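$ ./design --mode recover --in tokens.txt
reading tokens...
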């Protein structure tokens, strides 16, 4: 029962993130303010799912602390995006870049932890974690790029985050001791 719930949560989070990423990818004319609200909602939902999974499975899950930190940061960033979209739009590149970079690093470390335990699928998590870390750095250190480029970076990061969630859903049995 718990494992099927986890799998469903990973799939829902992955689908929501990918849909949001595709929306931004195909609508680069969307303003930063509207992106802040949409992204804030998706990040908040993803953070809630991460915390739910942590609290249900922390005693049997590899990398549980990273899951907890990722969930807490996701909820904080999500609420911040939703609370003041105008202010967030001005600092959006920095906040989003830090979130994607931290989330990518946590996935990277988790993937290498799985490698040590000879789990299948660890290489996908390392690849996605590295991609997210690079996207986070690009977003964080190049805030002067135009709205179209920023929208594309956000879209790619959300799609990568969604792909990670889907992969976790597919390989969910292998992440439990």
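writing sequence...
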């Amino acid at each position: 029962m718990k494992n099927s719930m986890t799998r469903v949560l990973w799939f829902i989070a992955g689908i929501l993130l990918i849909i949001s990423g595709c929306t931004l990818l195909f609508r680069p004319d969307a303003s930063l303010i509207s992106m802040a609200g949409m992204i804030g909602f998706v990040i908040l939902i993803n953070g809630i799912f991460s915390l739910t999974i942590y609290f249900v499975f922390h005693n049997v899950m590899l990398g549980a602390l990273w899951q907890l930190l990722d969930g807490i940061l996701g909820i904080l960033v999500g609420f911040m995006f939703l609370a003041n979209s105008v202010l967030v739009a001005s600092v959006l590149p920095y906040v989003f870049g830090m979130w994607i970079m931290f989330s990518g690093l946590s996935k990277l470390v988790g993937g290498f932890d799985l490698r040590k335990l000879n789990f299948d699928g660890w290489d996908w998590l390392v690849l996605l974690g590295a991609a997210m870390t690079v996207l986070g750095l690009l977003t964080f250190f190049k805030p002067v790029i135009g709205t179209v480029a920023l929208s594309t970076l956000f879209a790619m990061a959300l799609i990568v985050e969604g792909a990670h969630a889907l992969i976790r859903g597919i390989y969910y049995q292998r992440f439990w001791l």
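exit 0
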